[in-house]
Specification:
about 30% strand, GIY-YIG nuclease family protein, GIY-YIG_endonuc, 3-stranded antiparallel sheet, 3 helices, GIY-YIG endonuclease, alpha+beta, single chain, GIY-YIG_endonuc_sf
Length: about 80
């Protein structure tokens, strides 16, 4: 299984991060340990949404969509809890 996920910074809730992984639990641990240069500055992170996909390609396509302008609007309106 592949997971597309959205994290929210605990200390700076306006900061969110969208990613894809094959091991969601370990990836969250990695983000909170500062092992990602993109997320280290805003740790700790809270998992606020995820979806599982059976195929890596589909997961990557959906992650790419969520990172687009229309995908961010969709996520804000349909997937994410309010700030």
């Amino acid at each position: 299984m592949w997971y597309v996920y959205i994290l929210r910074s605990e200390h700076t809730p306006s900061q969110e991060y969208t990613g894809v992984t094959g091991d969601l639990k370990q990836r969250l641990v990695d983000h909170n340990a500062g092992r990602s240069s993109h997320t280290a500055k805003f740790k700790p992170w809270i998992l606020i949404w995820y979806s599982a996909f059976p195929d890596k390609g589909i997961a990557l396509d959906f992650e790419r969509y969520l990172k687009s302008h229309s995908g961010r609007a969709f996520a804000k309106k349909r997937l994410l809890p309010p700030l």
